[in-house]
């Protein structure tokens, strides 16, 4: 079989739904010191760049407020704006398709590609297509889906999964990328140069040469969209490498998979987001490539354009008056870059294409909290609030996390659990002053046996669940009651 017809090898990591809970995955990730170094360096670098360009904007908070207001307006009248968007897209010559879920979206795209009689497509980096696992659906249909973003290419060739919204291969070092290119590029097309080192310029040149032949022969391109303008039927894609521009302009047919929350009401609204998104994501004043198109144009770019509008759980999120804030998200990844949990655990621990704080609130709402990984995500946070401070559309992620934790507890209410037993025991003890006083005496008596120690190193089960993960302080040698009686001469 020729290289042209050899599709990407399927990822060998477990499917997202089948992954263990966040604590188990995070514990494994914490042991990967190389990944932790990579994440710390990359996120700190991006944070610094973002802070510098945001500091240049005198009315940054006003921009955030405006961005949040525009997105809330869309969510409050989403049905109207979607109908308007469909009308404008259709009038511009684009065919609009509606997909209730991932399966329907994948079926539509596969049928469109098959209808063109091709066995490969080139793809712009797209979170929506990752969410619905489009690449896997295309591969099952015998169609090779070539990722053209540099980081996505690294992930694809390495049989890996993305670990960051903006920089999917953030967990990989340069030496690892060099080895992936050397060992895997040849099976997918043009091999890497034999003299290639791990210098970034040489790695980028190897990717450019590898992808160029795919760009030039591709008949079908697939993209997402950062924004879809309702009053003009315009789609917008922002990127930094130029691969997206190649995918959007060279193929004869362009299929764009767009989440229904990506709508902006008017062309004027785009100006706000073209200031918010680049600064928050790449730390740039504007993206090097901003592609904007309104249907096909004779003799210029794709002559056939399709838009697949995908729900896939978004109307469920919309129904929650608190949780719907998550649909404001413009996928900038700023919350990941400031999150202390993400920086240490990495993206794979979240078991979703949306890692970090936004993934912890968006994924459980899109997929539900019926499986262990999604039920654990709202707890993957210290609630420090840094994510809200940097969010360009002011998503109150800490509030959403607390709201989701309540939903998780409510969903399991009445079921036997160690936590439930502990709470019942505590309620029994607190119900009678004498029981509480007796317990206090026992604790203070035991503390006297720990003379000279400041923390409890290990307690027997179930106390070991706490002490094995945290520094538990030694209990005081006297209670407040005892102190009061000693210093005031009266009982309390």
Automatic annotation (TrEMBL):
Domain called Lactate utilization protein B C-terminal: residue spans = 407-486
Which stretches make up the LUD domain?
84-310
**The keyword NADP is assigned to this record:** no
Sequence ranges assigned to domain 4Fe-4S ferredoxin-type in this UniProt record: 326-395
Q: Which InterPro entries match?
A: 4Fe4S_Fe-S-bd, 4Fe4S_Fe_S_CS, FTHF_cligase-like_sf, Helical_ferredxn, LUD_dom, LutB/LldF, LutB_C, NagB/RpiA_transferase-like
**Which GO MF terms does the UniProt record name?**
4 iron, 4 sulfur cluster binding; metal ion binding
Annotated signal sequence range: none
The record's annotation in Pfam families points to: Fer4_8, LUD_dom, LutB_C
* Name of the protein in its database record: Iron-sulfur cluster-binding protein
Q: What PANTHER family does the database record attribute to this sequence?
A: LACTATE UTILIZATION PROTEIN B
Record keywords:
4Fe-4S, Electron transport, Iron, Iron-sulfur, Metal-binding, Repeat, Transport
Q: Which GO terms describe its biological process?
A: lactate metabolic process
């Amino acid at each position: 079989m020729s290289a042209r017809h050899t599709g990407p090898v399927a990822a060998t990591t477990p499917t997202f739904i089948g992954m263990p809970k966040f604590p188990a995955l995070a514990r494994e990730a914490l042991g990967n010191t190389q990944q932790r170094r990579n994440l710390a360096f990359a996120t700190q670098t991006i944070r610094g760049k973002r802070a510098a360009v945001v500091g240049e904007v005198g009315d940054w908070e006003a921009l955030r407020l405006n961005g949040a207001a525009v997105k809330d307006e869309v969510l409050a009248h989403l049905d109207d704006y979607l109908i308007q968007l469909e009308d404008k897209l259709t009038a511009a010559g684009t065919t609009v398709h509606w997909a209730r879920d991932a399966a329907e979206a994948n079926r539509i795209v596969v049928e469109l590609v098959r209808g063109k009689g091709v066995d490969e497509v080139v793809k712009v980096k797209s979170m929506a297509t990752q969410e619905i696992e489009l690449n896997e659906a295309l591969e099952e249909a015998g169609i090779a889906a070539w990722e053209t973003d540099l980081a996505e290419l690294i992930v694809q060739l390495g049989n890996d999964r993305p670990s960051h919204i903006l920089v999917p291969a953030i967990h990989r070092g340069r030496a690892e990328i060099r080895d992936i290119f050397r060992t895997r590029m040849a099976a997918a097309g043009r091999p890497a140069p034999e003299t290639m080192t791990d210098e970034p310029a040489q790695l980028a040149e190897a990717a450019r040469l590898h992808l160029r032949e795919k760009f030039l022969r591709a008949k079908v391109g697939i993209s997402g969209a950062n924004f879809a303008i309702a009053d003009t039927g315009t789609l917008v894609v922002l990127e930094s490498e130029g691969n997206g521009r190649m995918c959007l302009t060279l193929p004869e047919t362009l299929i764009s998979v767009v989440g229904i929350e990506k709508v902006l009401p008017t062309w004027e609204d785009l100006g706000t987001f073209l200031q918010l998104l680049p600064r928050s994501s790449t730390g740039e004043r504007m993206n090097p490539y901003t592609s904007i198109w309104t249907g096909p144009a004779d003799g210029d770019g794709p002559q056939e354009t399709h838009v697949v509008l995908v729900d896939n759980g978004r109307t469920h999120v919309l129904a929650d008056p608190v949780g719907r804030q998550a649909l404001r998200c413009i996928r900038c990844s700023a919350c990941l870059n400031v999150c202390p949990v993400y920086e240490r655990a990495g993206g794979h621990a979240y078991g979703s294409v949306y890692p970090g704080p936004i993934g912890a609130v968006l994924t459980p709402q899109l997929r539900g909290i019926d499986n262990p990984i999604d039920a654990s995500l709202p707890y993957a946070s210290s609630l420090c609030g840094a994510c809200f401070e940097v969010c360009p559309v002011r998503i109150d992620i800490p509030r959403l996390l607390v709201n989701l934790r309540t939903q998780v507890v409510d969903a399991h209410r009445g079921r036997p659990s160690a936590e439930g037993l502990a709470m019942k025991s505590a309620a029994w003890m607190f119900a009678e002053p004498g029981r509480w006083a007796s317990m206090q005496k026992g604790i203070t008596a035991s503390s006297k046996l720990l003379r000279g120690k400041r923390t409890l190193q290990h307690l027997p089960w179930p106390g070991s669940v706490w002490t094995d993960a945290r520094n538990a302080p030694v209990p005081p040698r006297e209670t407040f009651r005892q102190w009061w009686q000693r210093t005031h001469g009266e009982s309390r």
